[in-house]
Amino acid sequence: HEPDLSLKEFGERVTLMSTQNDFEMDMMKEMENFRKEYVGNVSHELKTPLFSIQGYVSTLLDGGVEDLNIRDKYLQRIDSSVERLLNIVKDLDMINRFEAGQIELNLISFDINELVEEVFDLLDLEANRHLMKLELQSTQKKLLVHADKNKISQVFTNLVSNAIKYANREGARIIVTTKEEAKFISITVEDNGMGIKPENLTRIFERFYRVEASRNRKDGGSGLGLAIVKHILEAHHQNITVESAYLSGTKFKFRLEKSSL
Ligand code: ADP
């Protein structure tokens, strides 16, 4: 049977119980705050393109726009807002499926250098527009990895297009390096752009997180790109690290399993 508790022991137990309760309460509060913040972020991201669509549609419906060129311009803006909405929804859907463990990788062997060149081809025009150069540096001509090709293509697309968006400097260089190690291929994506301050650096992989300066840029995204990159690499049992020096550049590093073929 329970021995009688001294007043001191009783006090200690009560304190322990209430600390546990406090802990659970804190956890619940934190989850609730997280949920509120998440819903707030989603609706905020959807609101901007929706308001823009609403604005153009009602102007067109009012019938005041007779100039066909202007009408076309409005329709193009509606089109790009719709595309933006679809991208946000697609990104959110992908993150949700990753978090629910519903994404299966389609692992194959492929040449990582060839994939980097394919991504460069798609982004070259955008890079040229900003007078930036895309470069691949590799220890070998061909480096085979064992990974999900489409998902890794998305990783490069997100990292390189971020470098183009945020390097923000004419003549900037974006360099992808690939290097063979014993079991892995190590990869870096580096730019000599504006960099990220140390206080923001720890948060950039969070959903919806954007550094203040990029919030105001019109080509800034919704802050989901790096969260997706992290999920894709985690699904490959790899992590991604970042080093950055404010105003001089940013470097992302990760590894992929080498193909045994
Ligand atoms: P976004 O959709 O806003 O691009 P990301 O998740 O891809 O979101 O990136 C989060 C934030 O990290 C960006 O808003 C930007 O402020 C910062 N960032 C990402 N890559 C770079 C880079 N190469 N140079 C400077 N800042 C970057």
* Bound ligands: adenosine-5'-diphosphate
> Can you tell me the residue ranges where pLDDT is under 50 for at least 5 consecutive residues?
none
By DSSP (H or I, 4+ residues per run), the number of helices equals: 7
Q: What percentage of the residues does DSSP assign to strands (E)?
A: 15-25%
The CA-CA distance between the termini, in Å, is 67 Å
Order of helices and strands: HHEHEEHEEHHHEE
Mean pLDDT, nearest integer? 91
Number of strands: 7
Strand order of the largest sheet: 2-4-5-7-6
Main sheet properties? 5 strands, mixed
- What integer value in Å does the Rg equal? 24 Å
Structural class: alpha+beta
What is the overall silhouette? globular
Helix fraction, binned, reads 40-55%
Catalytic activity: ATP + protein L-histidine = ADP + protein N-phospho-L-histidine
GO cellular component, one term: plasma membrane
GO molecular function: phosphoprotein phosphatase activity; phosphorelay sensor kinase activity
Domain Histidine kinase: 41-260
Would you give an account of this structure?
There is one protein chain. The chain has 261 residues and is an alpha+beta fold. The protein is built from seven helices and seven strands; from the N terminus they run ααβαββαββαααββ. The strands form two sheets. Strands 2-4-5-7-6 form a five-stranded mixed beta sheet, with helices on one face. A two-stranded antiparallel sheet has the order 1-3. A hairpin with a 3-residue loop joins β6 and β7 (249-257). α1 runs antiparallel to α2 and α3 packs parallel to α4. The structure holds adenosine-5'-diphosphate (ADP). Adenosine-5'-diphosphate (ADP) binds at residues 158, 162-163, 166, 191, 193-194, 196, 204, 209-211, 214, 220-227, 250.
